[in-house]
Amino acid sequence: MRCFSKIFVLLCLCSQLLHSQSKEIQFLSGTDSEHTKEWDFWISGGRKSGSWNKIQVPSQWEQQGFGSYNYGRDYVTYGKNFKFNDEVGLFKHKFLVPDSWEGKSVNIVFEGSMTDTEVKINGQLAGEIHQGAFYEFKYDISDKLKFGKENILEVKVSKMSADKSVNNAERLADYWVLGGIFRPVYLEANPKENISWTAIEAKADGTFRSNIHLKGCQTVNNLKVELFDAKNILVGESQIRIQKGDTLKQIQFLVKNPKLWTAETPNLYKAKFSLNKNRKNICQTEEKFGFRTIEIRKGDGIYINGTKIKMKGINRHVWWPETGRAVNKNIDLMDVQLIKEMNMNAVRCSHYPPNKSFLKICDSLGLYVLDELAGWQKKYSTEVGKKLVMEMVTRDVNHPSVIFWSNGNEGGHNFDLDTEFGKYDLSNRPVIHAHHKPGNAFNGIDCNHYEDYYSTQKILEGENIYMPTEFLHAQDDGGGGTSLADYWELHWNSKKGAGGFIWAFADEGLVRTDLSNQIDVNAINAPDGVVGPHREKEGSFYAIREIYSPVKIDLKTISNDFNGVISVENQYYFTNLNECQFEWKLMKFKTPYSSESGFDVLQSGKLQSPNIKPTEKGNIHLNLPQSWKKSQALLLTATDPFGKEIYTWTWKITSNEKISEQFSKSLIKEFPVSVVENDSLFILKSDEKEFSIGKKDGLLKSMVIDKKGKKMTFRNGPVFVNGKMELSSIKSFAEAKNQVIEVLYNDGKKINWKLNSNGILELNYEYSLVGDYPFAGVSFDYPENYIISAKWLGKGPYHVWKNRLQGQTYNVWQNLKNSSRTGSSPWIYPEFKGYYDDVAWLQLDTAEGKITIGTKEEKMFVRLFDFYGIYGAEGYPKLAAGNISFLDAIPPLGTVLAFNINDKTESLGPESEQNHLNGTFKRTLYFYFGLPDLGDEKKQFTMPEVNILTD
Questions:
Q1: Is 183 helix (H, G, I), strand (E, B) or coil?
Q2: Residue 719 burial (10 A CB sphere; 0-12, 13-18, 19+)
Q3: Is the Cβ–Cβ distance between 370 and 333 less than 8 Å?
């Protein structure tokens, strides 16, 4: 009998499942930019206009070879008489609808269409024309469909809107203006009695509330809500009665001890909503959500679950070069992963709502999101804006990652819309204004854009929380990570500092199908990213990663008395460092004449993670072996609780003096050295080499590097990059086996040239400076077009600026010569040209042979050839004479914005000031030209073997 009862219950459950009626989806277009469907297409102007063709949907029609290109700022560039290409596209598509859908409520859904969109089904208008490019809209077309038969969809899309405010808000903007159905189109079939949408509020104390919006309720009499955790375990449920004609019901109950959602702990739950009629399921929907509480404590800060947080954020356009704003979940996933790789915790959706998959990934991987209504610098009208706010909020309301609604950008705020967001958002998230003028704080938060370091200090002393939604504009190589360390310290240490959002994530480069598929960033308008169009990582990417590392380590050098203890600050908000993992490695670097770059690991070890609570300080104990000083470098890697690398720090242990001694000892051949002179030159000579030094200036004029008379054109140095070089005296003399030329200048500068018997040309120089200087050191000339590659021991692999030294680590790096400039085609990174930090030795492979240069002293910058950080009417910052420089100081880099150009870079903070120099600088350089005979291959220029495994 008991067995029969179980079978009966099982049959009843199966019967309910068979009769369950949930939403059904049928895609009319493809699902994303990688999976498209072909529709019929006609366009009114530009390429392929005036005749019917085929087009892939979703897409931007320009990227399919139709129409013409416009950049949103063209109206500024070309003046009042400029007119955008007001193209109109006509789409046609035939589709079948299942017989089983008859009697259901069927909507056609457009996730995004640029811009005015008129929809017809079988010749009948589906509804009023939709205006607004970035929003999901739908029409109930149940009465217009032919079930079980062929149906015709006709869509008319106008690139420019008939509504002036829509054009002002969306089209007159600093980004590409494109046309087409760029997000999916599909049919959704629901039971006649259904749940149209839900709004969830789930607080940190476990309170769950939901507004459930109902449609067509005639016979249903019960609404049930069930909550499930990540393991699909039921954690709470409730149900209420439904009356005929009900359109809105609210359910509220408590979940005990929920796992909370934050960007560090993205714990998600699932809510299942069921409409029932006498225990029979009529309609069922599901939503993912997270328990979390957002608070703005005016005059204090932004709190998540009772903890103050600060935004390490960036602005992101929805973008891919080949497909424009038609993207896919793989691109969205890549972008979220890259943002998190930079140790950021927040993203601003500039300047419109993103596609849905991006927000889902932010929910699951953990990013705080500012979801923004479009309005670049002008606003929507109230009439249009109300509809678009409703579409935006009802689509995105249940994403726990969305913690702010942004009502437009930089003047694109219609204040009449501020209260509209709360009408659809049960949790009543804060609304902000992303503005660019002071005095426009809203809801206790000032979001003013592009304040400098010192005006930021003043704002932080005011009454409002300060969270700039744009700062450190990253056009070309400026901004981004440049000066960020100073800004972050300001916000981290200020009560009212809430962090901010760098402009911007990616260079908005578009593959021009009308120009042989070249990538176009519209001159200086769109190369604003810290990654390239295809997400190529720039130097700022790595600087940001170190600066924003939640494991904050400021140790600069390893001293002789280092005891393995490293001070650390925990800049997480919800994570104890004992949840992270730490590993050290002791290393030996590859050598200049090795065929490889990189290092060899001598020994490694893991350490006990320190118990350091969020926002507190403590120490890491490495427990290194006693013989650690015999290695050349120390590496430390921190890994987060999810197994992702946070950052890897490296410190050089062996001094440059010891490294240069080892190089000298490896050169086994010796030759007698002499000096001859004529009217204009001293010539240092050995059996293999000779170097000509000018008698009037002391500079290297020419050289011969072997017995065959082979020449190299490395010359015209050392030119001091500051001050004049007026010769006081020059003389030559012998020093043991070596020959020396001593050069003195009137202002105290000194040069000593020394040719050593092993073939090394040694240069000792000395100079004094008092004052502020962009750079300091010496330069030489060498033809750039002779360069093949560079190999060096030092920080790398990217170049640096005085105010962006972060993100580069010690290693033996190698880089083929390229002519890349940041933010411009061909986006080959790392760039070859630039300033390189803390170089111990550099080897240039050239068409004339190898040039190897080392230094005895620490902290030498090397400048390779001519390059600029920002490109405008003139390149900036200015460069020293010569094109290969050995420097003790390098310049800072500002941003493209006018108030920071040339003499105002220092407004970005202490790191961005000129070099304040006061003293005498001395440096020794060692030059070897050509390939040395290193003797037995097994002994080729190697450090002695170090065995530390026995300790």
A1: coil
A2: middle
A3: no
Give the Cα separation of 55 and 39 in Å (integer).
5
Compute the residue count for the chain.
Answer: 951
Q: How far apart are CA 677 and CA 619, in angstroms?
A: 62
Domain with CATH 2.60.40.10 in the chain: 194-289, 551-654
Query: What pLDDT sits at residue 82?
Result: 67
Domain over 551-654 is classified CATH 2.40.50.100: no
What are the two backbone dihedrals, phi and then psi, of residue 586, each rounded to the nearest 5 degrees?
-105, 135
Burial of 3 (0-12, 13-18, 19+ CB in 10 A): exposed
Element housing 501 (H / E): strand 499-502
Rounded Cα distance, 19 and 283, in Å: 10
Give alpha helix (H) positions in 149-231.
164-166
Beta strand extents in 678-747 (DSSP E only): 681-685, 690-694, 700-704, 711-712, 715-720, 727-735, 738-745
- Which residues are paired to 922 by β-bridges? 766
Cβ atoms 500, 487 nearer than 8 A: yes
Q: What angle do CA 223, 229, 232 make, to 5 degrees?
A: 85
Alpha-carbon distance of 555 to 577, in angstroms, equals 18
For residue 234, what are its two tokens? 């039921």
| Alpha-carbon distance values, 179 to 121, 478, 716 (Å) | 22, 31, 56
| Strand 599-607 to 715-720 pairing | unpaired
Is domain 194-289 given the CATH code 2.60.40.10 in the classification?
yes
Q: What is the DSSP letter of 588?
A: E
Phi then psi for residue 43, to 5 deg, are: -130, 150
Q: Which two tokens stand for residue 790?
A: 């560079």
CA atoms within 13 Å, Cβ hemisphere of 631? 26
Rounded Cα distance, 42 and 180, in Å? 11
Nearest to 764 by CA among 576, 922, 945: 922
What integer pLDDT is reported at residue 931 of this predicted model?
83
pLDDT per position as a tens digit, 898-941: 444 445 899 999 999 999 999 999 999 999 998 876 655 444 44
Q: State how beta strands 194-202 and 207-215 pair.
A: antiparallel
Q: What angle do CA 77, 78, 81 make, to 5 degrees?
A: 145
Whether CATH 3.60.21.10 fits 310-547 = no
What's the pLDDT at 937?
A: 40
Q: 111 near 40, Cβ under 8 Å?
A: no
- In the prediction, which pLDDT does 7 show? 38
Looking at residue 21, its pLDDT comes to: 57
Q: How many beta carbons lie within 10 A of that of residue 726, not counting itself?
A: 10
Query: What CA–CA distance (Å, rounded) separates 211 from 393?
Result: 13
643: Cβ contacts below 8 Å, ≥ 6 apart: none
List the one residue out of 199, 175, 132 whose CA is nearest residue 373: 132
Kindly give, in sequence order, each residue whose CB lies less than 8 Å from that of residue 596, ignoring residues fewer than 6 positions away.
590, 812
> What pairs with residue 270 in β-bridges?
228, 288
Residues 6+ apart with CB under 8 A from 646: 343, 549, 550, 551, 580, 638, 639, 640
Round to whole Å and give the CA distance between 702 and 683: 9
Of 660, 769, 649, residue with least CA distance to 720: 769
CATH superfamily of this structure's domain 24-190: Galactose-binding domain-like (2.60.120.260)
- 3-state class of 608 per DSSP? coil
Residue ranges of the chain with per-residue pLDDT less than 70: 1-21, 75-82, 436, 439, 668, 898-903, 933-951
The CATH 2.60.120.260 domain(s) of the chain lie at 24-190
Residue type, 850: K
Omega of the bond leading into 351 within 30 degrees of 0 (cis): yes
List, in sequence order, the alpha helices (H) in 638-725.
656-666
Quote the CA–CA distance of 556 and 562 in Å, as a whole number. Answer: 12
**Omega cis (within 30) before 797:** yes
